[in-house]
Specification:
The complex is a heterodimer of chains A (about 110) and B (about 110).
Chain A (H helix, E strand, L loop, with lengths): L4 E3 L2 E4 L5 E6 L6 E8 L3 E9 L2 E5 L6 E5 L5 E5 L8 E8 L9 E2 L3 E5 L1
Parallel strand pairs in A: 2-11
Antiparallel strand pairs in A: 1-3, 3-8, 4-5, 4-9, 5-6, 7-8, 9-10, 9-11
Chain B lengths: L3 E2 L5 E4 L4 E7 L6 E7 L6 E6 L3 E5 L2 E6 L4 E6 L8 E8 L7 E3 L3 E6 L1
Parallel strand pairs in B: 2-11
Antiparallel strand pairs in B: 1-3, 3-8, 4-5, 4-9, 6-7, 7-8, 9-10, 9-11
Classes of the chains: A mainly beta (about 110), B mainly beta (about 110).
């Protein structure tokens, strides 16, 4: 089975711009979670989608949003970029997204905000 | 108190030794526990999952869970330089849907 894929792998943006990141889960997986990873904060949970519905959301401002499509692919959007948004953005997929399911990560998108 | 705590390290062990990585968590209702390995510049890779008290072995890796003490550990036997990485402990909290909290990771250095 192909793994989780994320595009693009690298992005450079300037403050105030917006960005859209894409994630394709493992075939058959219906849950997609997004995380932000920075050296200082570690892995921080952004949100989780299952069957096109956001079921859970972390403590991030409303500038961070996401969606999931009927084929389980997911996108996340960050509007009005700030310097502090520079991070590795990871998506992870799991089969049904319950507490027992293992999550598998994609390679990540490294976002740099100048 | 952090929800999932790990010693940041670095933990240095000689090649061939046993590396012991520890993690504590605060939510007594946590149901599932995972260990991920993350090489520098790469994404986390799942290496072990454990759901019930006791030990679970997979090759050179053994995960240990003690829910009463809210403690989970990972032992790596016969440590190799290729095991040098950051190890993330992840805890899935109770509830119908997935909410996983990660520790900040322990950096392991295996010295040849």
């Amino acid at each position: 089975k192909a793994g989780v894929t994320q595009t693009p792998r690298y992005l450079i943006k300037t403050r105030g711009q917006q960005v859209t990141l894409s994630c394709s889960p493992i075939s058959g997986h219906r849950s997609v979670s997004w995380y932000q990873q920075t050296p200082g904060q570690g892995l921080q949970f952004l949100f989780e989608y299952f069957s096109e519905t956001q079921r859970n959301k972390g403590n991030f401002p409303g500038r961070f949003s996401g969606r999931q499509f009927s084929n389980s692919r997911s996108e996340m959007n960050v509007s009005t970029l700030e310097l502090g948004d520079s991070a590795l953005y990871l998506c992870a997929s799991s089969f049904q997204g319950n507490s027992y399911n293992e999550q598998f990560f994609g390679p990540g998108t490294r976002l740099t905000v100048l | 108190q952090k929800e999932v705590e790990q010693n940041s390290g670095p933990l240095s062990v000689p090649e061939g030794a046993i590396a012991s990585l520890n993690c504590t968590y605060s939510d007594r209702g946590s149901q599932s526990f995972f260990w991920y390995r993350q090489y520098s510049g790469k994404s986390p890779e799942l290496i072990m999952s454990i759901y019930s008290n006791g030990d679970k072995e997979d090759g050179r890796f053994t995960a240990q869970l003690n829910k009463a003490s809210q403690y989970v550990s990972l032992l790596i036997r016969d440590s190799q330089p290729s095991d040098s990485a950051t190890y993330l402990c992840a805890v899935s909290q109770s509830g119908g849907y997935q909410k996983v909290t990660f520790g900040t990771g322990t950096k392991l250095q295996v010295i040849p």
